[in-house]
Amino acid sequence: MASVNSDEWRAICDKFTNAQNLTDIESKNDPQNEPFRSKYKARELLREIYSSLKCFDAPEGDEDSVDQQPPEEPVDGQREEGHGQSICGDSAAGLRAARLGAVDYYLGVNHVDTEELSAGQEHLMNCMKLLEKCSVTSDNVSLYIHVKNQLGILWASRDETETAQGFLETAESIYQRYMKEDGSPPTDMTEYFTTEENQLTHQERTKRFELAYTHTMYYLAQVYKNLGQNERAATYCHSTLQRQLQLNQFSPMEWALNAATLSQYYITKGHFMLGRHCLAAASVISGLAGDVPSEAAAQESEIESERREKLRQQRAEIARCWIKYCLNLLQDAKKQLEDNIGELDSDRQDELKRTRRQEEEEEEKERKSTLLFGSEDTFDSIATLEEKVQCLFPLDFNEARAVFLVGQNYVTQAKEYFVMDGYVTDHIEILQDHSALFRSLAFFEEDLERRCKMHKRRIDMLEPICTDLNAQFYLMIRRQLMFELAESYSEMMDLKLTLANRQADTQSLDNHTIKKFNSLCSASAKYFQMFLDSLCSPDGKFPERLEEEVLRPALVAHFRVGRLHSRLIGSPPSVQLTDLGKSLENYKFVVEYCAAHPEAAAVVEAELELSKEMVGLLPLKINRLKARMVTNN
């Protein structure tokens, strides 16, 4: 057997180095008409290495294997079965198995990269079969994990998620077992084909091994997400992000976007401390990508132009995640504090204020038990940013306003990139979030005049957009805006009437107040009716059966139009009669639709009950009005 310091061995090592260089570097410059040219060359070198290994260190008594050549495609995955039983009889045989397995691994990855998945799978399975005949040692544990990772990726790409899960969970258990039983820095796969003077340091071995396991966790996070195991997926994603920071193996903007995305899961689950931590880390780490190039620099260089565009977009995306954080925090606080008519429950507010200290202590405990992001260089910056916005529910207007202002600041940042000219949908979604921030803040405002002004701000930002949008291309968005505008006008109407009634009864309202009330009432009814009209066919016919996504909004709109037409003040009797007729017509629609489609009743229980009541009462009111009109005439 030739020595590992022989010229023959050095030739093998040189071929391996060339194959790696072709794969990792030269392939990036391959022409479009030959996209895999370098990888095909690397494949030939790997096949030559395989043949040389058979000749180089074949065990005594296994001379037959010397003449074997690696087939163009593996045959039935059985290449090593003939001598597998004794392949790991000693450490030298184990190392030989690892080297042969490593070549199969690299050939497998090569075939997958060149879109030859079946051949890639055969090579990877051959590698795995070789290793399964050996115990897990420092010589081969890294290869074990890499091949399991690659098979997991391969099966995931075929949407065979559970098969992928099996390979990746095995990789995880191999890592955990090795770290428990040994834990020493294991041999890296590249070291199978290096001379003694080029072996890696213990530190570099450890880093590469931990990075392989980090990839396992990353792929498992994707698998669990695809299986609907969202909590488990979030845990693995969180750990992956922290390991990437520890190993200093990450792209700042990619890492930041992943952290910001993870925050959205935590927020929807009510874990605001974790959501805030992810967002603060995302903002800090994104700063490591550098400053956004100026417009002048972007105009002079195509590379700087692309970099400017990418950085601006990615930071705007993180800003949007911050908006969602602030909005969800305010909305969830509102749910905790509102009474059965949607107003602030002062008793509940006092109760939560009394338990605030306990909440703060629980938050501190959670923080201490949580895997926090950061290093010595970034941890303080992350903590400083976290302090700028609370993660406990705001309990009064001042606390809510502080959260609102943070959200509004990120609205401004996001809109700088997602402008109306070019990003219509994104821009409108940001405006809708801004409107929702105002609506949530208004809940905490005790001054009804100021609350009314907040709803007016919502109308001012959404109404021009709704008017200008092309109904053909942005129908769904226009429907959303119509409904929100109708509700905003309705809320303003109720507030104005409440303010007026604090000073006098309805019969004594001055003309200005009545005119304002009726104007708001009519505007609300107009937008609800516009929403309903948008559901009609081109010939103006309303659908006999409503689609599930518009079922509740449509029935609620009919109910609200009915309510609004019955609330107009001070109209002449003839106009009142017309309005009451429209009101009855809309209430009847809700009742008759639910009778024809019983499944709809569960969607609008409260509205249906009131509609039935009004269908019984309104005809009496209409008849009395008609009788009075006849008498007066």
Automatic annotation (TrEMBL):
Superkingdom in the source lineage: Eukaryota
UniProt KW keywords: Cytoplasm, Cytoskeleton
InterPro entries for the chain: KBP (IPR022083)
Pfam families tied to this protein: KBP_C (PF12309)
Cellular compartment(s): Cytoplasm, Cytoskeleton
Region (Disordered): 59-87, 347-369
Gene Ontology biological process terms, A to Z: central nervous system projection neuron axonogenesis; efferent axon development in posterior lateral line nerve; enteric nervous system development; microtubule cytoskeleton organization; neuron projection maintenance
GO cellular component, one term: cytoskeleton
Signal peptide: none
Family the entry assigns: Belongs to the KIF-binding protein family.
Protein name: KIF-binding protein
